[in-house]
Specification:
Number of strands: 9
Distance between the termini: 43 Å
CATH topology of one domain: TIM Barrel
Helix content: 40-55%
Shape: globular
Strand content: 5-15%
Oligomer: single chain
Number of helices: 11
Length: 354
């Protein structure tokens, strides 16, 4: 939506309108931006985005460097370019009002390279610390391809301003996804909840009804039990209720209309119908701000629930970025991902509390 749809045509959504779109259309409360969306933006442009984000109630939380940076190169010029670029990303994140910036480290998986990369990252972390920004290591092949190597790198760099940005899709591709997240999430300032394809709803066993409802008699067959008694009463009078005998044969006075259902009938009232009736009587609609019932959808490439449960198990309470990477309508994919993740988070919290 932010990219031109054709030569000479404008994007369908301007970057300055993205925060309001995120809040009002997607129902999300924060933004994770990547640097490719900000190509050519100057300080004034970044400040305008921050102002719009604050005003819309969808603050910029994380800025991700789109291209992996070659910290593991044998050439000093490459490492210097990577360090310079990472510092600029940190500075841009601070202008946007983000709490963190994430980068991908391009480097071979080697002990000697690990030491060089840690040394090159230290000035970037120092700059991040001065700006109150966390520098996060995003998943990438090579040196940071395993959770063990990532944590080893963090310890070599040192300080409180370097952390991780775990990714659900990356975790699912490892031999032990839950262990991967258990190891990296404690260092995370953000977690990427990547989704690809959401299909039919996940179904739990429906609760059993505590009250048995009498079924109507089949055609040509007499009713039995309670159903038979109801039919007899309805047949006794056109109104459906059997007449009551007054004293000395006098015609009984009809009872006043009751506004509250009898206790025996309360369980039979449909909540939706009752809400509609109340709304009609009050002359106003039911509150639309009430949150809808969330339904978790099945995620075909990998099961989302163990991943959500894994980050909940280590006490993570930071931002969870919705990153829909599938095909089709992107807005629909984000909305389905959002509702599914919220439903799974609630389920994980209930399990922890239980």
């Amino acid at each position: 939506m932010l990219a031109p749809v054709g030569k000479g045509k404008k994007p369908s959504l301007d970057m300055l309108d993205l925060p309001r779109h995120t809040r009002e259309v997607l129902g999300l409360s924060g933004l994770t931006l990547s640097t490719d969306l900000l190509a050519g933006a100057d300080r004034a442009r970044l400040e305008a985005i921050r102002e719009r984000a604050d005003r819309a109630g969808a603050a910029c939380l994380l800025l991700i460097e789109y291209d992996p940076q070659n910290f593991g190169s044998n050439k000093e010029a490459d490492v210097l370019a990577a360090t310079t670029r990472a510092r600029k990303v940190v500075e841009a994140a601070q202008i946007l009002g983000c709490s963190a910036a994430a980068i991908k480290v391009m480097a071979p998986n080697d002990d000697a390279v690990l030491a060089r990369v840690a040394l090159a990252l230290k000035p970037v972390v120092d700059r991040a610390e001065k700006l109150d920004i966390n520098l996060l290591i995003s998943p990438h092949d090579g040196l940071t391809g395993t959770s063990e190597r990532v944590t080893e790198l963090l310890k070599k760099v040192g300080g409180f301003r370097i952390g991780t940005y775990p990714d659900f899709q990356t975790a699912a591709g490892t031999a032990k996804p839950v262990d991967y997240l258990h190891r990296l999430t404690p260092y995370a300032t953000g977690v990427c909840a990547a989704t690809v394809k959401l299909t039919d709803p996940l179904t739990d066993e429906p609760p059993k009804s505590s009250k048995k409802v009498a079924e109507p008699a089949a055609a040509g067959k007499p009713a039995k039990g309670k159903a038979a008694k109801i039919e007899e009463e309805e047949a006794a009078t056109p109104g459906g209720a059997a007449p009551k005998k007054g004293k000395k044969g006098a015609v009984p006075v009809p009872p006043p209309v009751e506004l509250i259902a009898d206790e025996d009938e309360i369980d039979e009232i449909d909540d939706a119908e009752l809400d509609a009736e109340i709304a009609a009587l009050m002359g106003e609609a039911i509150d639309d701000d009430l949150p809808p019932k969330l339904v978790a959808l099945r995620h075909e490439p990998y099961d989302l629930y163990p991943l959500v449960e894994a980050i909940a198990a280590v006490g993570y309470d930071g931002p969870l970025s919705v990153d829909y990477r599938g095909t089709g309508d992107i807005t629909e994919g984000i909305l389905k991902s959002r509702d599914t993740l919220l439903a799974l988070i609630a389920r994980a919290k209930d399990k922890t509390a239980g």
